[in-house]
Amino acid sequence: MPLDELRSLLARHARPDWTTALDGVFVSRVDRAAPPAPSMFGTVLAVIAQGAKHLALGDRIHEYGAGQYLVASVDLPVTGRFAGASPDRPALGFGMALDPALIAEVLLRAGPGDLPRVGTGAPPGIAVSDASEELIDAVVRLLRLLDRPRDRAVLAPLVRREILWLLITGDQGGTVRQLGLADSGLSHIARAVRWIRENYAEPFRVEEVARLSGMSVSAFHRNFRGVTAMSPIQFQKQIRLQEARLLLATRPRDVAGVGHRVGYDSPSQFSREYRRRFGVPPGEDAARLRLSGPAAAPALP
């Protein structure tokens, strides 16, 4: 069965850094359940072959397991963990970056009437569905190319397009299609998300970001929360705190300086919000990170 072969391929090709010889294709293997960890990831397809994963985004909880796939349509701060993983039965997953330009190319090849009608509003940033047998089979054929170096350059682009077409015509087709449309609601929100991530340490007015994204303030608020499950200010706070944690791993004795660098003028506010996010004050977390080393951010959700 395709899922059995998928498990075998993932177990054989898993690396510590989750990368593969195919650019933008990732393989994950997790041998033990761990506490929930914050991470960032971009636009990606993720398929679970064994085990299960729980993701929290804002006030939304997403769960998916073997035979299911997840589409992430913007770069979002999430908290996630694999459940029930063990050395005897590790969690195994496949990931593939979703390239908007390639999605646009596939859409241009579709004939009249080939695509169902979808809404124009911005869809949620994360969505989970059951994977069809055709999708699992295409993922298996892409991973088989890891054992066939001579064939990769010719066949991998073809299988990638097949996977994208199956996504476009599947349950999450509306989301994937909007990734390839420059003027979609999702593209407008992705523009705002990118701006906030690049300028996270600076204060901003929501009206200014709405204008940069090409939306009215009311439409921007509605669509931003619909995609990210957060307000723009809450989103900025999540980015600030995750960046602070990364900095504390290398500058554990400069808690106040790190807080100021990520945009906090008040050390007490930084400490309070950091503790609320990660469960411990920044100084205590920094000491722990210094001893254990920071956890690597997952390559796929």
Automatic annotation (TrEMBL):
Listed SMART domains: HTH_ARAC
PROSITE patterns the record matches: HTH_ARAC_FAMILY_1, HTH_ARAC_FAMILY_2
Pfam families: AraC_N (PF06719), HTH_18 (PF12833)
UniProt key word Transcription regulation: yes
Record GO terms (molecular function): DNA-binding transcription factor activity; sequence-specific DNA binding
InterPro entries reported in the protein's UniProt record: Homeodomain-like_sf, HTH_AraC, HTH_AraC-typ_CS, Tscrpt_reg_HTH_AraC_N
Domain HTH araC/xylS-type: 190-288
Keywords carried by this UniProt record: DNA-binding, Transcription, Transcription regulation
Keyword DNA-binding (UniProt): yes
Listed Gene3D superfamilies: Homeodomain-like (1.10.10.60)
Protein name: AraC-type DNA-binding protein
Lineage, highest ranks first: Bacteria, Bacillati, Actinomycetota, Actinomycetes, Streptosporangiales
